[in-house]
Amino acid sequence: GEDVEQSLFLSVREGDSSVINCTYTDSSSTYLYWYKQEPGAGLQLLTYIFSNMDMKQDQRLTVLLNKKDKHLSLRIADTQTGDSAIYFCAESRSSASKIIFGSGTRLSIRP
Amino acid sequence: GAVVSQHPSWVICKSGTSVKIECRSLDFQATTMFWYRQFPKQSLMLMATSNEGSKATYEQGVEKDKFLINHASLTLSTLTVTSAHPEDSSFYICKQRAGEYGYTFGSGTRLTVV
Q1: Which residue in A19, A34, A102, B111 has the most C-beta neighbors within 10 A?
Q2: What pLDDT score was predicted for residue A13?
Q3: Considering only CB atoms, which chain A residues are within 8 Å of B102?
């Protein structure tokens, strides 16, 4: 079955880079997403990558995809206190298919 | 781990009718269920938070008389879209806590109102 896994916690020092990792099982995944949830808010789509891409960069965010290993990562450069949130990895087979989410990684920033 | 069964996965209904979406916790008792709706560009908007045995808390701008949420037991939360219109066509998904940390999502329901 389809499954997406990610670790529950990550703690980084302010100014360092954060790397949040995710693995998925569906080899038919076409879209891979990263969502950010801040307290009391919905899930904001941060970025997404197509399965035929290896990397996507958007300002401080870098997404790396290893399709062979079904491994997705999100790197946040120069992590700031405003980056404290829960980050969800997700995948779908198409833009109209159901989205399978991971359990979320809680990113905390220490001074 | 915790599993949430959501159904139906997809539904097509006529304008003016009501549709009920269920989220059932299979191996975990969920006192709180979150309901989301997907908007263009894939962001998920939190519609409401339901708590077992009490009234749901709706987010600003969400019509509580249109989107009825019931959380009558620890294992079942339902969202009913009443008098559905084409603009209600969307992807609806529920989420519950899985343990003290982490969350589990339902598989989502794609609603098409014609």
Answers
A1: A102
A2: 97
A3: 8, 103-104
